Amino acid sequence: MSESELAGQFFDAAIGLLERVRDEESSNIAAAGAAIADTVEAGGRLFAFGAGHSSLAAQDVVYRAGGLALMNLLAVPGALGVDVMPATLGSALERVDGLAGAVLDSSPARAGDLLVIISLSGRNALPVEMAMNAHALGLKVIGVTSVAYADGTRSRHSSGGFLRDHCDIVLDSKIAIGDAELDVDGIEAPFAPASTVVTSAVMQAMMAAAAERLLERGVEPPLLRSGNVDGGHEWNGRVMAQYADRIFYRH
């Protein structure tokens, strides 16, 4: 079977975006890692939130091999993506005013904690209000978004603001408006989105930067090991017991 030209073009586009983010967002990623390390060292808790396909990158840093055990998923029922029927309901929930406040008020998040909010467009009510309400509660907020949307679209929140306007640290994924890397004659719609690849890489780079900062301070990063290697379950059990009051995906 011959190689696919379009598949190769997508890899090239994704690699190019990863290189841009690595080179252009390095200082922001380092700042995000330091903020996470500060929170871990101070006894705070870590949360990640994303709606729709942005939730995939949030889920990717929660309860996984090689990940920080303290990272918890801040879930909004129905907004994780294709976990509801009809799937279009998830998109509708992103535009509902007041939903973010209700979720935060019923969550374990409190002052001194840190929340990573992932939203490609950053224009819907849910991520904007999540950042605004998190700040009001005294949380540090890191936003992972595409600044291109803030520059080229209109906010859907009543304030007129975007996610980037309400974050302590913003990481720009560099994804173009529309989230499709290929546009080919004969195919009407652009296709091959790269936001999940890039955003997940940003999240893991941020976690690596946090582990580096903790190591520099003489603090053992509370990392999980794979349950599929010998001793992995026992290691994870010890970590979870040590940090039980800061881990919420077991309750």
From TrEMBL:
Domain of life (superkingdom): Bacteria
InterPro entries in the record: RpiR-like_SIS, SIS_dom, SIS_dom_sf, SIS_GmhA/DiaA_subfam, UPF0309
Domain SIS residues, every copy: 36-221
Annotated CDD domains: SIS_RpiR
Segments traversing the membrane: none
UniProt-listed HAMAP family: UPF0309 (MF_01240)
Family named by the database record: Belongs to the UPF0309 family.
Stated name of the protein: UPF0309 protein OIE64_15150
